[in-house]
Structure formats: C-alpha cells, structure tokens
Amino acid sequence: MAEQNTQFPYAYQFDATLLAKLLTRYGTDRGVRHVLDDVVHAEVDERGDVTHVRTKESGDLAGDLFIDCTGFRGMLLNKRLEVPFLSYQDSLPNDSAVALRVPMEMSDQGMGPYTRSTAQDAGWIWTIPLSDRIGTGYVYASDYCTPDEAERTLRSFVGPGSEDLTANHIKMRIGRSENSWVNNVVAIGLSSGFVEPLESTGIFFIQNGIEQLVKHFPGGRDDHQLRRSYNRQVANVMDGVREFLVLHYIAAKRDNNAYWQDAKTRTVPDALAERIEQWKVKLPDADTVFPYYHGFEPYSYTAMILGLGGLDVRARPGLALMDDTAASKELRQVRDQAASLVERLPSHWDYLAHVARLKGKRS
Ligand SMILES: Cc1cc2nc3c(=O)[nH]c(=O)nc-3n(C[C@H](O)[C@H](O)[C@H](O)COP(=O)(O)OP(=O)(O)OC[C@H]3O[C@@H](n4cnc5c(N)ncnc54)[C@H](O)[C@@H]3O)c2cc1C
Questions:
Q1: pLDDT digit string, tens, across residues 227-277
Q2: Which residue of 40, 138, 171, 203 sits with most ligand 1 atoms within 8 Å of its CB, as the best mutation to test the pocket?
Q3: Nearest Cα to 204, choosing from 97, 304, 295?
Q4: Which of 69, 76, 92, 124 to probe ligand 1 with, by most ligand atoms within 8 A of CB?
Q5: Each residue's pLDDT tens digit, 269-311
Q6: Structural domains of the chain sorted by starting position, each given as residue range(s) with its CATH number in brackets
Q7: How far apart are CA 245 and CA 221, in angstroms?
Q8: Which residue, judged by its Cα, is nearest atom 48 of ligand 1?
C-alpha cells in the first residue's frame, strides 16, 4: 500500500491548465470553434455595442455577446467601453504579490489538506501544498513594502534552497468594475473584479459570474432589466466579500507596526463599521451580516472574530442564565470523534494518490 502511494500517475498531476484543456475539449466536442489568438482591437457601433473583435492572425470575429476574460487588462469592458473601475484600495490596501514554486517530495513528508495564511509586516504569505510542490507567495501593500523587500521576506520564509527559484511579481487591481455587463459585453473573472486572495474567492467570482450569466442570458432583444439584475447581483457578491476581508484586518490582534495599526483605523464601509459594533455584543447572525449572497455564512464571520481574537467581544448576557452541560457534552463528543477519525483515516497524500490511481485505471 505505502509503495503504491508514492507517485501520482502523470496524467493526474494537479495543474490548472488541465481544467482549461478539459473545458476546451468539452466545448469543441459540442460545436464550439476555438480560436487561439491575440485580440488587437474591438469595433463598436453607434449604440456602443461591440460588433467584432480584430485578431492578430485570424481576422475579424463578429458576435452578438462578448465575454471579456482578459484579466486585469479589462480590454473590452474597461478599455474599449470605458466602464469605470471602482477601487477597494481605501479599505483593502494589498495591491501586489510575489510568488515562488517550491519543488517538494510530498510522498516523503505528507501534505496538509489546507492552505495556510501567515501574517507578515505588510500583508500575509500563502502556502498551498500541491502534489509535487508548494505554491507560496507574499501578498503585500506597496505603500508599506517594496517588491525587493517582499521577495527577500518570502525567500527567507521558504528557507534554504529558495535562492535558486524564480520569483514571479504580480500587480493586482483591487475592486470591481462599476458594472460588469455593459451593452453586449460581460466581464467575467479579473476583468470584472478582484479582491486579494485571502479567502481564495477568485474562482468563486468566476463561477458566480457564469451561473448568473446563464440565469440572465439575453434573448434577441436588448433587455436592460436583465443586465441591471445581473450587475446588481455580481456587485453585491464582491462588495460582500470585501466586507468579510476587511473584518480579517480589523479583528486581528496584531498591531506591531504601521501597516497593522493603520488596518484598525482605515476607512471601512459605514454599514460594516456599524455591524462590527453590533458583533461585539452579539455575534454575527443572518440579520446582521452583509444582507446579500456573497458566499460566506454568519458562522464564517463568527469563526473569524473568535479565532482572530482582536475584537473586544462580550458574550450575550442571556447565556449566563443557561445551563451549558448538554452543549459541553456535545462539543466533547465532536472533539473525540475528530481525534478518532484522524487516527483511523488515511493521510491526505494517501487519499489523493489513491483517487488519482483509480481514475488512471478508469481512463
Ligand atoms: C496572487 C493571486 C493569487 C490568487 N489565488 C487564488 C486562489 O487561491 N483561489 C482562487 O480561486 N483564485 C485565486 N486567484 C484568482 C485567480 O487567479 C483568478 O481568479 C483567475 O486566474 C482569473 O482568471 P481570468 O481568466 O479572469 O484572468 P487571467 O488568468 O489573468 O487570464 C486572462 C487571460 O486573458 C488573456 N488576454 C489578455 N489580453 C488579451 C488579448 N488582447 N487577446 C487575447 N487574450 C488576451 C491573457 O493572456 C490571459 O491568458 C489569485 C489571483 C492572484 C493575482
């Protein structure tokens, strides 16, 4: 068993391009024409609709609806249609990242089933275990730290051997487009909006954009109510996630330098400031968190507030009048059950290798 689990079959190495390939095959098998090229220009008619895009090598491509997936560039929506971008930087200042790929033999040392975020002097470092390496990166605010300082911090965090690895510096556009769907252009992904990846919400935003587009898919006529409804939903999701992220900084105990001190006094949306005051005397519930769907439930807020421990939270006075014997018993059972499962279940590495092997056999 141990020997079998030491290597992933090559075809199932985890790789983001695999999903792109899978989706390409899924589409082309169903009649989609896949053109790989650079868009150099978009032609717009008198109503402001894009009529066609000009490509470097494949000529003009006409269409009724255009999805702008050009990343932070926002080529169709922001550049061509000049839709304003609303920055969140006043409340979320992290605008840069530097990343390293650290090769690692996971079968020797096992791998964690989670991503770790480690606070730093001007942001935080992510550590993501993959089957053959660790993906790590420092997300930081350029107002507080230079790219060279950030790279040095990341390399020293990784430790010996990191000096030979190539660092990838990334500039991030934090915020959202005023409207993600304007005329016949729908921006999905980074062109629509982005917040720092502290809660890994980038792919969630993409999935949400796609699901909403399916729900709001236009017919032949221009229906501005569909666009309005789409834009409101997509904006609410991002504004809600913004609040959840801001809470991480306000609720953190850390205040050892200007970056963390400023995090406590930075402008926050008015409604959030009021909510935080409420949460200090009554932990979040459905009535007091951001009122529109944004992917996080009240219990996520509670876990964040209690886990980070920097807010002066008081228990509801009414709780003192209740007997906690039954609740304590239940929590003990949950803890014992978790400990027993950790003893009995295979490690994360063993489990993933097992699944990969089963799939390899099936294909
Ligand atoms: C530092 C960082 C960490 C992240 N971590 C996470 C995470 O942990 N979890 C998560 O869910 N998300 C994460 N994300 C977000 C995730 O990376 C993005 O949501 C996702 O990659 C965005 O895809 P996209 O297609 O919108 O943009 P991109 O991946 O930037 O793709 C845009 C594409 O458009 C192409 N393009 C641009 N202009 C043209 C043109 N003129 N013609 C033709 N093609 C063009 C580019 O070549 C590129 O391939 C992270 C993002 C960053 C920056």
A1: 999 999 999 999 999 999 999 999 999 999 999 999 999 988 889 999 999
A2: 203
A3: 295
A4: 69
A5: 889 999 999 999 999 999 999 999 999 999 999 999 999 999 9
A6: 96-171 (3.30.9.10), 319-362 (no CATH)
A7: 39
A8: 70
